[in-house]
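Record pair follows.
FIRST:
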Amino acid sequence: MPNIAVVDMAGKSVGEITLSDAIFGIEPNAVVMHMAVVNYLANNRQGTQSTLTRTEVSGGGKKPWRQKGTGHARQGSTRAPQWRHGGIVHAPKPRDYSYSLNKKVRQLALKSALSDKVLTGNMIVLDALNLDSYKTKTVVDCLKAIGAGKKTLIVLEDNNAFAVKSIANIKGVKSAQVNTINTYDIINADTLVMVKGAALKLEEVYA
């Protein structure tokens, strides 16, 4: 079982935590993580692109010239795709790009991403993130003290409004909870900062 040092907001070691092998100690599965990332990005696509086909552009109701005898190629409308201001061939239309992954695949991808952070030494366990007001500077100082990277994901134990809004003000830093954490955010972050209580909750949910 992987053992990780637990640090306080000043960056000082205050103990050690033994993490579950079933979540933080598996062999990362790159294929499954890729599937989860593609799924996440697809589900976040708006799909609002839309252009006009030849039936939707204005004009072109009259045949531009007679069928035969002009020396021109035959034309039925000035709004055909080859004409200026004509419609678009196979025009993109609004569509839903989202799809679902099997539950076991999603869980394996999440565990693989967490295990990869532990394996590469890019996971920090924070004893607690205690904020009693909106203090962005306190969070910035904490991240500097513990040596977090420019892109950091902080996993909180609960929905602490002070912590969430203070973190939201920092460029490149994102917060999540145990029930909102996802594979993409973990992989996208340089450093994963896990509050000790959140790590224990994750083990309860996924172990």
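SECOND:
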Amino acid sequence: MSNENMELLSAKREKAIVKASVIGVITNVFLAAFKAAVGLISNSIAVTLDAVNNLSDALSSIITIIGAKLGAKQPNKKHPLGYGRIEYLSSMLVAAIVLYAGITSMVESVKKIITPEAADYSIVSLIIIAVAIVAKLVLGQYVKRQGEKHNSGALVASGSDALFDAILSASVLLSAIIYLIWHISLEAYVGVVISIIIIKAGLEMMSETLNDILGKRGDKEEVSEIKRLICEEAEVRGAYDLIMYNYGPNKNYASVHIELPDTMTVDEVDRLTRRIQMKVYHKSGVILTGIGVYSYNTSCDEAAKIRNSVQETVLSHDWALQMHGFYADIESKNMRFDVVLSFDIDRNEATNILTKEIQGKYPDYTLQIVPDIDA
């Protein structure tokens, strides 16, 4: 995939996000206006809060548009890896707006429970609410599909929120029908339920976006696929320490270590690593910014025996998940390897334990043990 193609895909993605968001803004503004009118005429707190929720959805869509526009800016000297992470900030703002709307709705609903006021629905108002439910279902499905298609967390959140709104509006309609038939007012209590669901959605959106900003474990399938692509090369015995770096939706970088025979020349390693970088980029879109190299012994039976013995010692501990990058220099009495550690033990403590045990077996050797995280 060339840089030109990547730019075209980025522009297409931005255009699709903006289009879906504009549709969301227009739809939500119209729905908010109709619901506000119904809420004021019928003195319904639930319908009024539903209108406020539509306004917050419209604002969320506007923020999504701004985030997509800013996130699509080209890299420059100040930000050489681009502005993609701005989209995560826009998602955080959307989550904050949803959370604020939920808290405000809760306060107003509680007030209505303390000082209740009778609602007065008309057939026209019920029809408007029913139409709003259908509109929200269609909008939610469309926006969510576009978000999943173009990897936009803000759009997926907006689409899910719209589908949720349809369910909430249905509960408002149901409470209105119950009031008209049995004269039982559930307005304020429905408002409380709506508020709780909105607050929960806002907290979940905020948590998910915060994970993106802080950095999270790479997708298991994607990591496995990249390692598979690397290990297809005949010279590579293993791929380890693959760390993913995300700089916005569809902007992924990574670093990795590969295990190669100690007989390869620097020229051969150079050609191999460049070939791997191009292959991974074309097949997955991930840019390998760095490929480290481990060498392994190819013609020393004694080194192979030592490796098996050391590996048995290392993996006898539950917190030692993997050993790799082993190399033993018999002549200079040096031994080096990496150990992937679980998060259940302190790295220094684990290193001290392994050093003591292995040094006891091979007192003449100088050890270099590198503790790796379980990424």
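COMMENT: The chain has a mean pLDDT of 83.
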